[in-house]
Each structure stands twice: as C-alpha cells, then as structure tokens.
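pasting for ref
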Amino acid sequence: MRVRWQLLVLVAALLACAGLAQTQPGHAVLSSVGLYETPANYTELAFSDPGHLPGILKNPNDSIKVSFTIHNVSGDSRSYKWSIVLANSGKDQVAANGTALSSAQGQTAVTRSVKTYCVNSRLQVTVRLTNPVESISFWMTCPLAAGKQAKK
C-alpha cells in the first residue's frame, strides 16, 4: 500500500512540474538551465499563386492582379505595411500600398489590381514589406518587346 502512495505522489509531482513548465515562470526556469528555447519569430511573404503570375503584358497600360500572402510565424498579432512597386527603365513607381493585420500564427491574403506602365522591354513587379524588410518580385515582358521578339 505504501508503494502505491509513493507512486501516486511521484506521478502527481511530475504532472505538477509538467504543468508549471508550460507557464511563463516555468519557461524562465527551464531557460535558465538550458532546457527551453524561445520559439522563432519570423514572417513569410509569398505570391498566392506563383504558377499563374502574368508573364507578358498585352498592352503597355494593362491592369494586373497581384496576390500575395503574409504568414506571421510568431506568438503575437502583427501589423504589416506593404507596397507593390513597379520598376521600368530604372524608375520605381508605387502602384499600391496598405496595411495588413495578421494574428499570431496567422496568414493574411492581399489582392490588388494595379495599372502597369511599359516604356522598355521588361517590367519588374515587387511586393515589399517595411518591417521586417522583405520583398518578392517577378518580371513581365512589355508588349513592344514581345512584338520585337516575335519578328526576329
């Protein structure tokens, strides 16, 4: 009978320690002895459907849809400032911008229609975040360049 009580007390103590380890003070104790590491916090930025990004503009001033996702891999909700920037002939133009809120471990999708402009052979479309500083981009062939390539 005594062995059962000792086993029961041991199991209760282990459960209490396991419960304490899940709290903020428990994390501090475990961290001080090297048994706990704070989870990584980072942001993932990606095009929503990269396989269907436009490659060739039909007209120099077409509107295109730019869709991207922001994945907040952290324990807190975050607000992200974003912009869609068009670059052509060495000139950058902000085509759209805004703010997106993402919950902890959440993902937010953004879709904007932006009007393009082409004065050269290629147009770069870039999605930028300001904090953290991240960007993704793709290139499009302008219609004049597409016509020149087809004649060759």
